[in-house]
Amino acid sequence: MAKYFDVHPENPQRRTISSVADSIRSGGLVVYPTDSCFALGCQLGSRDGIGRIRSIRDLDDRHHFTLVCQNFAQLGQFVQIDNDVFRAIKAATPGSYTFILPATREVPRQLLHPKKKTVGVRIPDHAVAQALLAELGEPLLSSTLLLPDEDEPMTQGWEIKERLDHVVDAVVDSGDCGTEPTTVLDFSSGELEIVRRGAGDTARFE
């Protein structure tokens, strides 16, 4: 059974966040809130976590996983960014954007797109997600909690706990965080490709 954590959306309880981080460090798969919608998250190098996310979401090996980072300094360890792209991304973070970029050697091979050697990265503008990232001291390997054959992510923590009770280890609930996933922008070829229009405004990039 998954543990259920009720967390204040603006001032998350330190002890609770520490318990969630401990679960992640010990190999757990958690559901947590972001500035776009709920996400599945596990430790960066967790093969079991990756496998469980793939199973829950029915993903193939071409799916871009996302490294959810606390800040820009952390993000820069895992992707290669030229000056122009750096400025564009810096101006839009934190926010509801996922950026696809060439990965550095710090990224485990199983997370890379098999042909492009790219990975998704983002910095969320959400107090609970930021508190969890600060406690972990490293990115969370994440994927939007969108179940197969469903058009929108679930928005209620209690419903997520009910539906995924036996396939995740914890559900972190800080209230409704929306149904619109991040806007996905691919900079990996040097030219911007808008992969998905979502919660982040694309006007600043067009």
From TrEMBL:
Q: Which PANTHER family match?
A: DHBP SYNTHASE RIBB-LIKE ALPHA/BETA DOMAIN-CONTAINING PROTEIN, THREONYLCARBAMOYL-AMP SYNTHASE
What is the protein's name according to its record?
Answer: Threonylcarbamoyl-AMP synthase
Species source reads Streptomyces piniterrae
Residue ranges of the TM segments:
none
**What does the record give under GO molecular function?**
double-stranded RNA binding
**Which SUPFAM superfamilies does the record cross-reference, listed alphabetically?**
YrdC/RibB (SSF55821)
Locate the YrdC-like domain: which residues? 14-200
Q: Which InterPro entries match?
A: DHBP_synth_RibB-like_a/b_dom, Sua5-like_dom, SUA5_domain
